[in-house]
C-alpha cells in the first residue's frame, strides 16, 4: 500500500519527539519511536500516522520518507523540505533539533494518542535499545535471514505483518483480538484494491 506520504504529520511527529526529549533527539531514536508509533496506530486504528514505506534493515524497520525528513535529505521534494525546515534542524548528522512548537492541528486525536503512548512506554530508552527491541517484532524478524545471511541491505515490509504479535513477553504495543486482526487485514486489502483502481 502506498498512499501519499504524510510529510506534515511526520514532521510534527518528529518535532513532538524532539520536544519531549528536551528540544533535540538522536535521529536513530526518533526513527525507531516513529516505527513503534506507526505500529501502535495501525493496530489500534487501522492506518499508520505516516503512510510511509517501511524497509527491514540491519538496524530494524526504517520508514523511508521519515528517514529523509529526519535528515532533511536531498531525496525530499521541495515542498516537503521547505515545510520540515520550518520546524526541524539537523545541526549534526545524527541529531534532530526542534526550532518551533509542534503544530498539533496537523495531527489527529488518534495520532497524538499513539505518539504519547509510545513516548510514555519507550521514550526513556536509547536508540540502540530501541533497535534491539525492534528486532523482536515479527515484521522484521521474518527478514532477518535475508539481511544477515544473503547480504541484502533492505527488504520492503508489508503493513499486514505489523498485525502479528511478537513472541514471549514483548509488548505488542496494542493488543488485538483475532477478529480485530482480521478486520485490519480486510481493511488493508480493501485499501490496496482502491489504490490499484486509481493507478
Report low-confidence residues grouped into runs of 5 or more: none
Label the overall shape: globular
Give the H and E element order: HEHEEHHEEHHHHEH
Q: How many domain regions?
A: 1
Proportion in helices: 40-55%
Number of helices: 9
**Radius of gyration over all CA atoms, rounded:** 16 Å
Quantity of strands, as a count: 6
Mean model confidence by pLDDT: 94
Strand content: 5-15%
The strand line-up of the biggest sheet is 1-5-4
User: How far from one another are the termini?
Assistant: 12 Å
| Structural class computed from helices and strand pairing | mainly alpha
Task: Profile the largest sheet.
Answer: 3 strands, antiparallel
Describe this structure in words.
By secondary structure, this protein is mainly alpha-helical. It has one domain (7-197). 50% of the residues lie in helices and 10% in strands. The protein is built from nine helices and six strands; from the N terminus they run H-E-H-E-E-H-H-E-E-H-H-H-H-E-H. The protein has helices spanning 7-20, 27-45, 64-71, 78-84, 109-122, 127-134, 138-141, 144-149, 178-197, and strands spanning 24-26, 54-57, 60-63, 88-89, 95-98, 155-156. Strand 4 (88-89) and strand 5 (95-98) form a beta hairpin. The radius of gyration is 16 Å and the shape is globular. The model has no long low-confidence stretch (mean pLDDT 94).
